[in-house]
């Protein structure tokens, strides 16, 4: 219990009444204690943050797990023409085609392998160019939508897309065209799909179900699916 002469706030003994200087000295210990207590409380409250701050230098002094690798010459063969580019190893094939080669037909939709807008052909096989690194494709033949036509003539699947009005905004169309080109050759080569009656046998017909399944990696936000299926079927039937 505090005496009547004790400070009502901190319980410290009263300061001398003789001069201002003794008053200041007498109050210093309690102020110091108060500041020390406040600092301790703040330290406890901020401990996780401070721990993260103090650990950061240790992490930065450790060997970098993902160091910056300088660009190096990479030669890509795109639509029959060789391009030697200065690329960092982390550059995707999609970015290499669009930003370095300058072929903007291949589209970036999701940039994570979900939409198919970036589909190109590599040695005849369709791949999502956003999911692969450009440096992995030296020595391979890359075909983009710009390379589907030859000698100024549209390919059969390009003509079928026009005849069947198989697009609206057109953003997905380059990927759809490359994918459909591969679907036709995959079917010609006898490759089964997950809807084929017997996945060990050559599918008998390129039905609409087969086309839908084989084109299912290419999303069309305009919903032009019915006409895309019709175009693929027509290109197949007219081949
Ligand atoms: S941009 Fe490559 S799959 Fe969507
Ligand atoms: S035509 Fe617009 S996204 Fe397919």
Automatic annotation (TrEMBL):
Name this polypeptide is given: 2Fe-2S iron-sulfur cluster binding domain-containing protein
PROSITE patterns for the chain: 2FE2S_FER_1 (PS00197), 2FE2S_FER_2 (PS51085), TAT (PS51318)
Alphabetical keyword list: Iron, Metal-binding, Oxidoreductase
Chain positions covered by the region annotation Disordered: 1-32, 50-74
Domain 2Fe-2S ferredoxin-type: 72-148
Sequence ranges of Polar residues compositional bias: 16-29
Source superkingdom: Bacteria
Keyword Ion transport: no
UniProt-listed InterPro entries: 2Fe-2S-bd (IPR002888), 2Fe-2S-bd_dom_sf (IPR036884), 2Fe-2S_ferredoxin-like_sf (IPR036010), 2Fe-2S_ferredoxin-type (IPR001041), 2Fe2S_fd_BS (IPR006058), Aldehyde_Oxdr_Iron-Sulfur (IPR052914), Beta-grasp_dom_sf (IPR012675), TAT_signal (IPR006311)
Signal sequence bounds: none
């Amino acid at each position: 219990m505090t005496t009547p002469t004790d400070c009502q706030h901190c319980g410290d003994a009263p300061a001398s009444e003789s001069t201002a200087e003794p008053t200041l000295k007498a109050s210093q210990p309690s102020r110091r204690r108060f500041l020390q207590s406040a600092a301790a409380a703040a330290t406890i409250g901020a401990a996780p943050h401070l721990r993260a701050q103090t650990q950061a230098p240790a992490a930065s002094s450790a060997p970098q797990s993902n160091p910056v690798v300088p660009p190096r010459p990479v030669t890509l063969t795109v639509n029959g023409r060789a391009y030697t580019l200065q690329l960092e190893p982390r550059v995707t094939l999609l970015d290499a085609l669009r930003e370095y080669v300058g072929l903007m037909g291949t589209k970036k939709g999701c940039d994570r392998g979900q939409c198919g807008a970036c589909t190109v052909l590599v040695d005849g096989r369709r791949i999502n160019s956003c999911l692969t690194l450009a440096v992995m494709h030296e020595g391979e033949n890359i075909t983009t939508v710009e390379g589907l036509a030859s000698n100024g003539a549209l390919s059969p699947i390009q003509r079928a897309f026009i005849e069947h009005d198989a697009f609206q905004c057109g953003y997905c169309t380059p990927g759809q065209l490359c994918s459909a080109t591969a679907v036709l050759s995959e079917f010609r080569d006898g490759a089964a799909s997950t809807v084929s009656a017997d996945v060990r046998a050559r599918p008998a017909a390129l039905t609409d179900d087969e086309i839908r399944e084989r084109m299912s990696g290419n999303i069309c936000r305009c919903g032009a699916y019915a006409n895309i299926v019709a175009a693929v079927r027509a290109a197949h039937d007219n081949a």
